[in-house]
Amino acid sequence: MSIRLGDDAPDFTAETTQGTIQFHDWKGDGWAVLFSHPADFTPVCTTELGRVAGLKSEFDRRNTKVIGLSVDSMESHHGWLPDIEDVTGNKLNFPLIADSDRKVSDLYDMIHPNADNTLTVRSVFIVGPDNKIKLTLTYPASTGRNFDELLRVLDSLQLTSNHSVATPADWRDGQDVIIGTGVTDEEANEKFPGYEAKKPYLRVTPQPGKEG
Length: 212
Ligand code: BEZ
Description:
- This protein is of the alpha+beta class.
- It contains seven helices and eleven strands.
- A five-stranded mixed beta sheet has the order 5-4-3-6-7. The protein has a four-stranded antiparallel beta sheet with strand order 8-9-11-10, covered by helices on one side. A two-stranded antiparallel ribbon has the order 1-2.
- The radius of gyration is 19 Å and the shape is elongated.
- Benzoic acid binds at residues 38-39, 42-45, 141-142.
């Protein structure tokens, strides 16, 4: 069954390169990114895992833990790790699940038989502090993901979970935001004094916490 936004993120116990992990326990009350890659010792995957390792301080800053997955074995994972460091300069610093029995892949619907019957596609799930699914992404094997976009989405998710705002197209942290449609003009005047109404339904204000 596919996983949709707002669903509970299924819990699981899995063997990883950092030992046995129980997902909800490991994640705690912070945020998590769970992402799959098709196979070890493949070019795009090598660049992806190195890139994510290089972004560790950015994920930490956002109180977010990262965990990767493929259906390859633990032995394969450990054999591949030196290549990732060699090519990208980044040592893997997050756990990688060895999902040989496809337990987690099936739980999260990461194998799409019409794309490839045996390998996981490039799935991404962002899970919130409440263990609910906040974002899903699915990329084909041939396209490496843009992990700056994941950080951008985390910024938006964390901002909009604390304030009654939404973020516009291509928004980046620090830029103006949109006042939520559930906020009346009266409430907006109180919460976001001086906001600009470009249309009655499109009201713009500086990002809360970054005004002035
Ligand atoms: C890659 O990571 O380059 C890749 C993995 C599986 C299929 C095709 C490409």
